[in-house]
Design goal:
Length: 734
């Protein structure tokens, strides 16, 4: 009898695994490690954050981006605003607090950290010199601190409205004004105004209101800061820190609304529950390796830290109008971060899109990058265009697409006075000669990016019933060919996006800005044998000629034709990867690993993706190959681990070999779309065949609607590739 029972249980377990009904795992937050990406320039924020939260408290080492540094570096304190994964100049670091035991008259109280504990929803450290323990958790618009002072020491607190994060050389942000006022024996209020940092944004003001559960016994005003001393009593002090971009009253209201009690552990548990809800919507097999779980769920976490939800916090909008800030930048995130949010939380993505349209309504242009309520630094083109079209083709509801189209058309036709911060830079050239001449900054990259945004306009215009507009911009989207120089051969590959004069001639010599200060400091003499491993700051952006030439995702079929066919295009891709010209740490190469799909070879995509993940990603501090770029790098990883990758601006996802045997997407927590890789192993890593909902599925892409309605994609793996995936989608011909 016992033996039969064991057999029955075994059979039931096998059936559950076969049906996928036992693949849901609980307590996924335990796999999230916010320190993944803190090394190698990942620049991720380590402090506790809500999904898309406005408040991001974290420790600050001056001169570091975004504030955190190794424990051997002293911290200046803990500020309430940070970005995550951004490069360039540091941003924020506003409203600094720092506990101390002595030094009421000192402006600074730097200290080293010991026993640093960094977890999702929680941060803790012991300050070495003073023995004070600091614990932090957070809500959407307020942070909660639990500070434990030694019983035999003083109990002081620095509140600094003049601190901002700066470059290591002291440049970057500038604090313009600030004030801290002791309102009562339990409350401190104030504001801080700063400017600069990433994107060179204009002045922004942060209001704050701090509430202490312990009476303030005395205070010492200093320049733009106040040092406080707490009276006798228990050694533990709790602080609520509410912030607002609107007014001091709103900062106080945020502290009260988002932290209604003093239950530190309860606040942390509520924050963990918010993250658990989102992580539950995309899962990999419970039997996946611990390394893959840590990489995957941390990647999801990092993908949902920005942009920051500041609805009701911008004076130009109505309280109920969606408003998001901290786009760093859409050029980074349109590719896979925002498509991931679309799958996990489509209502959130719709609010983000509506926010972009609202910024156009009130500020005149949609942003590419934005922080502190100010547009700044367009990296490529008007990439909000792609975000809106992506939402449209995937059927997101509640978006004013007609107004979105008008915003996109303004991007494409009107030059902003701040053309490198909004709209399209070099537009006057692009719209007259069909490309941007080489001497204009990032001319090659901007030209190909403008082409893709033109494609986005054509798709939306066609979908909204404007055929003439659609035709105009579809034709204009081929303009990249004006910079495609066919007579140049490098490493056996012929034809590249290369610098061109405004009169149509091709220069063989041009000045190059080597140090990035916008002043040409050397003359580059072009030779066919010239190595393309570097990039020329005056022409390419975060890429080289090999990579930039492939940045026309809407026109890959045309590029293949220009190359002379599939075999020549394969030679181009092989050379790109085999010679090390591809840098997955920068966004121009994000889609490149999947371009083998266009020649019917998804098996080669699978090889390249696996190689990139093995070489450039892991579950340690150096787990990201460079800046996370607001979750862009993390979302790239998360998608590829499951064997999907979004083709942004379309409703297609590219299918390749997963790194895990089972995963599922439950769009908005609803119907589950499961991906099963039968027989997956290091030896059996190629897709031999596929079945979608029980029917043969020969295509190497899948549509968004097939995922969100739920279903089951079963991939049969083999030791050698077969003919599966020779076509990307139904009706395609090569």
């Amino acid at each position: 009898m016992k033996r039969n029972t064991v057999l029955s249980l075994t059979a039931i377990l096998a059936l559950c695994l076969a049906l996928g009904s036992c693949t849901k795992e609980r307590n996924l937050t335990r796999y999230v490690d916010p320190t993944i990406g803190t090394g190698r320039g990942g620049h991720v924020v380590v402090g506790p954050c809500c999904p898309f939260g406005m408040v991001k408290p974290s420790p600050d080492v001056q001169g570091r981006n975004p504030g955190w540094g190794p424990v051997e570096m002293p911290i200046m304190g803990f500020s309430q605003l940070h970005v995550s994964g951004t490069g360039g100049s540091p941003k924020y670091g506003n409203v600094l607090i720092m506990p101390f035991s002595e030094g009421m008259y000192l402006m600074e109280h730097p200290d080293l950290r010991r026993d640093e504990d960094i977890r999702i929803g929680y941060y803790s450290t012991l300050l070495e010199r003073t023995g004070i323990q600091v614990e932090i958790t957070a809500a959407e618009r307020a942070a909660l601190y639990r500070i434990s002072y030694p019983e035999d020491g003083g109990r002081g607190l620095e509140v600094d409205a003049g601190f901002v994060l700066k470059h290591r050389n002291g440049g970057g942000q500038t604090n313009l004004d600030g004030e801290v006022t002791v309102v009562s024996d339990h409350e401190i209020s104030g504001f801080t105004t700063s400017r600069g940092g990433w994107g060179g944004g204009g002045p922004y003001t942060v209001y704050f209101h701090i509430i202490s559960d312990t009476p303030i016994a005395h205070s010492k005003p200093l320049y733009r800061q106040v040092n406080l001393g707490f009276g006798e009593g228990r050694p533990e002090v709790l602080l609520k820190v509410g912030i607002s971009f609107l007014c001091p009253e709103q900062a106080k209201a945020n502290a009260a609304q988002y932290l209604p009690d003093w239950d530190f552990d309860g606040v942390q548990q509520r924050l963990m529950a918010k993250w658990e809800d989102l992580l539950q919507r995309v899962q990999i097999s419970p039997f996946a390796s611990l390394k893959h779980k840590r990489m995957f769920y941390t990647a999801l976490y990092h993908s949902m830290l920005m942009p920051s939800d500041r609805t009701g916090e911008w004076e130009k909008t109505q309280p109920d109008e969606p408003y998001y800030d901290d786009y760093f930048t859409l050029w980074d995130t349109y590719r896979c971060t925002l498509p991931l949010i679309t799958l996990i939380d489509s209502q959130r993505e719709a609010a983000i899109v509506n926010s972009l349209i609202n910024i156009y309504r009130y500020d005149g242009f949609m942003p590419d990058g934005r922080s502190g309520n100010c547009n700044g630094s367009t990296q490529g083109s008007s990439n909000a265009d792609i975000v809106i079209t992506d939402a449209f083709v995937k059927g997101l509801k509640g978006i004013d697409y007609e107004t979105g189209l008008q915003a996109m058309l303004k991007d494409a036709t009107v030059s902003s006075e701040r053309e490198k911060k909004e709209g399209r830079a070099g537009l006057q050239w692009y719209n007259t000669i069909g490309y941007i001449p080489w001497w204009f900054s990032h001319a090659g990259s901007r030209t190909v990016d403008h082409c893709f945004c033109d494609y986005a306009i054509s798709v939306l215009a066609d979908g909204l019933g404007h055929p003439d507009l659609a035709e105009k911009y579809r034709e204009q989207s081929h303009n990249w060919r004006n910079l495609f120089r066919k007579d140049v051969e490098v490493d056996g590959v012929r034809g590249f996006i290369l610098p061109r004069n405004e009169d149509g001639t091709w220069p063989d010599e041009f000045a190059v800005d080597q140090d990035g200060d916008s002043r040409p400091d050397t003359t580059f003499v072009f030779r066919p044998e010239q190595s393309f491993r570097g990039h020329w700051n005056n022409f390419y952006y975060e890429a080289n000629a090999f990579e930039t030439t492939l940045c026309v995702p809407h026109d890959i079929d045309l590029l293949i034709a220009e190359d002379g066919g599939k075999e020549e295009f394969k030679r181009r891709l092989d050379q790109l990867f085999d010679s090390g010209y591809c840098d997955v740490g920068n966004e121009p190469s994000f889609l490149t690993s999947c371009l083998y799909h266009w020649i019917g070879r998804p098996d080669l995509t699978s090889d390249i993706v696996a190689r990139l993940i093995d070489n450039d990603f892991n579950d340690g501090p150096e787990g990201l190959p460079g800046n996370d770029d607001s979750g862009a790098m993390s979302s790239w990883l998360a998608f590829h681990l499951t064997g999907l990758y979004p083709f942004a601006g379309t409703d297609l996802y590219l299918i390749h070999s997963p790194q895990v045997k089972r995963s599922f997407y439950a769009a908005d927590g609803g119907r589950r779309f499961t991906i099963v890789a039968k027989g997956l192993s290091p030896e059996r890593r190629y897709i031999r065949s596929a079945r979608l909902n029980g029917k043969d599925y020969p295509y190497s892409t899948i549509r968004h609607e097939d995922i969100v309605k739920g279903g089951r994609l079963v991939l049969t793996m083999a030791d050698k590739p077969g003919k599966w995936g020779e076509k990307m989608y139904e009706g395609q011909t090569f």
